[in-house]
Design a protein that fits this description.
Elements: H1 4-13, H2 20-32, H3 35-39, E1 46-51, H4 57-65, E2 69-75, H5 78-90, E3 96-100, E4 112-118, H6 126-139, E5 140-151, H7 156-173, H8 185-192, E6 197-203, E7 212-219
Parallel strand pairs: 1-2, 1-4, 2-3, 4-5
Antiparallel strand pairs: 5-7, 6-7
Helix pairs in contact: 1-4
Length: 220
């Protein structure tokens, strides 16, 4: 098994030709998001959809960690998709593709063994949350998993730190669509309880300023 440090180094090297601001963003994401831990919820083969993939950081990490995966990544930002596609082509990464589109309103693929929403769900309204859950469950193969990496509302100091940062990123930097709609664990479980799924919840906030949490959702 390849070491996480080597995978991180290889992934970071993919972005070395980008402007320094974007390289800094990639480094900060690695420092603040538990990619290594989230990757353990992903199968090492089959088809994975990464919805709202942003700069493609986690998609590239997975492509290095699990070369047997077929990864299809989607984001609404066409310029990000163009950059990611160019990086994949220049580095001959054949198990990863990028497409632009609205993951809520557009059809994003056929079927998948695993679907990822990494720091995306809290940017959706409640109505859109329901839409994306239903679309994902429809696209999942039997025994497939929907993995939602969110932030929790506890501990409060980490929650408010995350909340105000997201507002800053949206309103000042314009790097996402501007909505911050974080659900508590009980609210999230109530929402998921409307569907025929089993859910496991894992906190990943230890060692991070952010209250990271993963919902691993399996179709029943």
């Amino acid at each position: 098994m390849r070491k996480a440090a080597d995978l991180k180094k290889e992934t970071l090297s993919l972005f070395k030709l980008l402007p320094w601001q974007k390289r800094l963003y990639v480094v900060l994401r690695f420092l603040t998001c538990p990619f290594q831990e989230i990757a353990e919820f992903v199968p090492d083969s089959g088809t994975v959809l990464d919805l709202g993939s942003g700069m493609g950081i986690f998609s590239f990490y997975l492509s290095k960690k699990y070369p047997g995966l077929s990864i299809k990544s989607f984001d609404y930002n066409q310029s990000r998709i163009a950059v990611c596609t160019e990086i994949a082509l220049k580095n001959s990464i054949s198990n990863l593709s990028f497409s632009a589109g609205n993951i809520v309103s557009q059809d994003f693929a056929d079927s998948a063994d695993c679907i990822l929403l990494n720091d995306v769900f809290y940017q959706l309204s409640l109505a859109d949350k329901k839409k994306i859950i239903e679309k994902c469950l429809e696209k999942l193969n039997s025994n497939g998993y929907l993995i939602i990496k969110e932030v929790a509302k506890k501990p409060l100091i980490k929650y408010w730190f995350c909340y105000f940062q997201e507002v800053f990123v949206a309103k000042v930097l314009g790097l996402n669509q501007g909505l911050v709609n974080i659900l508590s664990v009980s609210e999230m479980l109530d929402l998921l309880g409307q569907y025929k799924v089993s859910v496991s919840v894992t906190l990943l906030d230890r060692g991070y300023f952010y209250p990271h949490i993963v919902y691993s959702i399996k179709k029943r």
